[in-house]
Recover the amino acids of this structure.
């Protein structure tokens, strides 16, 4: 290995900023790449490197340059400047131009952008950071000029091919996969990304089958399901380290949080036989809820026939890799656009990360290259390779993995478009009329991401499932969608009037005026209520008889804090501080933590005195850290997690407390300990806080605990005198009370926070709080669950910390009840025998 140093000069004069300060999650969360940002004071963008221009955006606001060492630098002037459609910009270069350091790239009107763009802040990104470390000597807030080195990076280049057979083969012990959806695209992509950091060859084996661990499709082809056993096998100079790292990933870091959206229970689709229903109802599976009225539009995609042609292998390889590069750039741009349009669902944009991995997948690439060596044209070879992989996935028994064949087809057609120079392979969405109910055999994730919800009232496909990426994106966009619908729907003529009722998985034609009027009324009522709720989102949530309830937000980072503020939160009831500790090799420093906590506090418009509740590090169980080893436990949810981890690692705990106590305007900051189960744990934690306070000269700080262990609720009267507040973590409390893992594929529905047993423990918590004059909040899932809102208020809860998109609706729900009505509902709920009965009570 040889390490090469490379410098990136400042492309534009201005104030240097950390990427986290960019007001766009696509950049601040490093979805596109890593780097830094500049708040410009000049109006000319110069090339920061010597290289070749590989992309000039048609809106002229962004330029990408490929350096001499093959790395790509993206410069994106301003935020949401794509919407200006080139106004205010002048470009000096075109794709293919060679540039030197200091070559003018584009010019822009600073005043025009200041008036029309969301922000002038300009991210400068290194797109491919694999095997690359970025460094800068500039302090955030410094003024920089064109002569400065913005950042440098180091690249490791392989000088000679390592003979891996000279090394002993290293194997892990069998590893049980604890991810409930097995190794589907996203966990497989994590494995691939980690494996690529090692020189050794790495394989995963299961039941005698082997997969290249650097190949996403090969891993998915193993069809690894929940509780399957796999072994990591590596051979090479760093094989031992590779096996240890990948084993740790498989054991601890691929278990995904169970997003309610992404784990929609699979409904068995209606058998695809010709229906004789006189009302002409076509049935399928709900992918995204909602209703719509419109006319059918049959989306017939262009069929592709690729001829086999004798060609020069060297020439075709160059053509092939150029098409791959263009496809990557297009996917990165699509990811960025989707996240821009859907800030509250920006995490869904990460679906396209797996598409990038597919483009780099050795299984497909090697099959294509082998075909090219036979003297065959690139288009034919690529078409054959990706279709073979897609067909292999379709044949798998695991429905989730089989559904990912659609992603392979999506990526495959994108590359094919560049190979055969046929833009018609892309759907022209402009041709789709207003008020459309789209019908197709299938939609790809990238096609779904481009749908305009103002034109498309819903869509239905004859293939796919409710766990597909298409379904996930449809829910993010808020478009009613049905998958696996009866094939007969394909026979409906374009222009046929129809109703889509995705709530019940149906499309109806020949409907009555009464049906149409009812659906229209439902849609109108929902839209009017949503708009009214949003308009009042910044108003207090007060019951009809004048009792104020704080509606705060659950957040995980600075972007969430800004979104929460924009959506009307009364504060933050739960900051999951572990976001600062994960996905890194060592614990964050005190200054790093302080800076982030302060920026989040500032984002909440501190002059209004909005509270910020910071939960101390909550790891262990399903959230381990690589640098904080916790011995393997038979049941990690009953082991070392939450406050127990902090007490066992006092240095990390003290550093976090020092960072929290360094935030300005400390009166509005509340420290909250997770997973407290006994008084001695609380007292030990408070003693450490007191020591840090004394060291820093701080007299008073608000301290609370989460009530998420049944013993804490049962001992609430004992704990209450020692804290300033309680916050009920209803998700874990429900899990422990019902003895049901909330991620269990079969039982999760029964782990309902409205279970009367859970409600009785919340009541005990509220009673103890009232006696000791402290407040009670709820930050678990039921705080965002509309039927639960009046019951929680009736039990004595005075703060609801909810998911950001639910702030307006929860506030509106609070206003629709009096405190007496809430108390009556709560009293009745405690006498019922099941969560189902409680929900019926509230919903009437």
């Amino acid at each position: 290995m040889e390490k090469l140093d490379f410098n990136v000069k400042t492309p534009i004069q201005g104030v240097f900023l950390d990427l986290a300060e960019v007001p766009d999650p696509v950049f601040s969360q490093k979805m596109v790449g890593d780097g830094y940002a500049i708040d410009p004071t000049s109006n000319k963008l110069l090339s920061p490197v010597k290289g070749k221009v590989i992309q000039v955006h048609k809106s002229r606001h962004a330029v990408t340059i490929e350096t001499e060492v093959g790395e790509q630098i993206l410069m994106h002037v301003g935020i949401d400047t794509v919407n200006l459609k080139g106004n205010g910009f002048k470009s000096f270069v075109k794709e293919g131009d060679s540039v030197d350091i200091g070559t003018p790239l584009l010019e822009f009107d600073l005043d025009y952008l200041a008036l029309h763009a969301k922000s002038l802040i300009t991210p400068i990104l290194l797109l491919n950071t694999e095997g690359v470390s970025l460094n800068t000597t500039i302090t955030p807030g410094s003024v920089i000029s064109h002569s400065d080195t913005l950042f440098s990076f180091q690249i490791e280049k392989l000088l000679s091919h390592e003979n891996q057979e000279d090394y002993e083969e290293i194997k892990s012990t069998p590893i049980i996969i604890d991810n409930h959806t097995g190794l589907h695209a996203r966990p497989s992509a994590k494995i691939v990304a980690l494996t690529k950091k090692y020189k050794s060859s790495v394989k995963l084996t299961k039941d005698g089958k082997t997969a290249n661990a650097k190949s996403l499709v090969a891993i998915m082809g193993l069809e690894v399901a929940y509780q399957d056993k796999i072994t990591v096998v590596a051979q090479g100079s760093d094989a031992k380290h590779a096996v240890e790292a990948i084993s740790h990933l498989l054991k601890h870091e691929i278990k995904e949080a169970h997003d309610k959206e992404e784990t929609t229970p699979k409904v068995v689709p209606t058998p695809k036989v010709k229906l004789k229903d006189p009302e002409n109802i076509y049935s399928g599976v709900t992918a995204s809820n909602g209703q719509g009225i419109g006319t059918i539009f049959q989306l017939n995609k262009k069929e592709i026939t690729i001829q086999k042609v004798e060609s020069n292998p060297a020439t075709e390889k160059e053509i092939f890799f150029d098409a791959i590069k263009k496809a990557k750039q297009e996917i990165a741009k699509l990811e960025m656009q989707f996240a821009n349009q859907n800030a509250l669902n920006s995490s869904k944009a990460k679906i396209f990360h797996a598409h990038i991995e597919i483009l780099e997948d050795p299984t497909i690439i090697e099959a294509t290259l082998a075909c090219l060596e036979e003297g065959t044209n690139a288009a034919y070879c690529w078409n054959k390779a990706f279709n073979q992989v897609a067909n292999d996935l379709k044949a798998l028994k695991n429905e989730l993995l089989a559904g990912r064949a659609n992603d392979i087809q999506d990526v495959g057609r994108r590359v094919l478009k560049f190979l055969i120079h046929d833009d018609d392979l892309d759907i022209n969405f402009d041709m789709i009329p207003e008020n459309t109910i789209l019908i197709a055999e299938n939609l790809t994730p990238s096609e779904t991401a481009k749908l305009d919800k103002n034109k498309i009232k819903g869509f239905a496909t004859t293939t796919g499932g409710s766990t597909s990426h298409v379904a996930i994106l449809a829910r993010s966009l808020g478009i009613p969608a049905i998958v696996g619908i009866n094939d007969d729907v394909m026979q409906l003529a374009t222009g046929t009037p129809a109703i889509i009722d995705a709530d019940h998985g149906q499309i109806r034609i020949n409907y009555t005026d009464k049906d149409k009027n009812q659906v229209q009324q439902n849609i109108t009522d929902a839209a009017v209520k949503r708009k009214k709720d949003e308009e009042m989102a910044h108003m207090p949530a007060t019951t009809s008889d004048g009792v104020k309830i704080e509606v705060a937000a659950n957040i995980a980072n600075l972007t969430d804090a800004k979104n929460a503020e924009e959506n009307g939160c009364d504060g933050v009831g739960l900051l999951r501080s572990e976001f600062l500790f994960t996905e890194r090799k060592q614990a964050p420093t005190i200054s790093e933590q302080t800076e982030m906590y302060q920026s989040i506090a500032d984002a909440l418009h501190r002059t209004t005195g909005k509270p910020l509740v910071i939960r101390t590090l909550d790891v262990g169980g399903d959230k381990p850290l690589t640098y904080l080893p916790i011995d393997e436990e038979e049941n990690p949810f009953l082991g070392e997690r939450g406050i127990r981890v902090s007490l066992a690692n006092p240095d990390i705990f003290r550093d976090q407390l020092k960072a929290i106590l360094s935030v300005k305007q400390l009166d509005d900051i509340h420290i909250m300990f997770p997973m407290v189960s006994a008084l001695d744990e609380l007292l030990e934690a408070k003693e450490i806080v007191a020591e840090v306070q004394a060291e820093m000269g701080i007299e008073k700080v608000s301290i609370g605990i989460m009530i998420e262990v049944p013993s804490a609720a049962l001992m609430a009267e004992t704990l209450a005198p020692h804290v300033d507040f309680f916050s009920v973590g209803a998700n874990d409390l429900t899990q422990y009370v019902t003895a049901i893992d909330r991620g269990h594929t079969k039982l999760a529905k029964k782990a309902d926070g409205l279970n009367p047993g859970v409600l009785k423990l919340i009541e005990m918590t509220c009673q103890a709080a009232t006696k000791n004059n402290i407040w009670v909040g709820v930050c678990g899932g039921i705080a965002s669950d509309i039927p639960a809102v009046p019951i929680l208020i009736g039990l004595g809860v005075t703060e609801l910390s909810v998911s950001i998109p639910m702030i307006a609706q929860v506030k509106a729900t609070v206003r629709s009840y009096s405190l007496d009505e809430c108390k009556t509902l709560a009293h009745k709920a405690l006498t019922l025998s099941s969560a189902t009965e409680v929900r019926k009570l509230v919903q009437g």
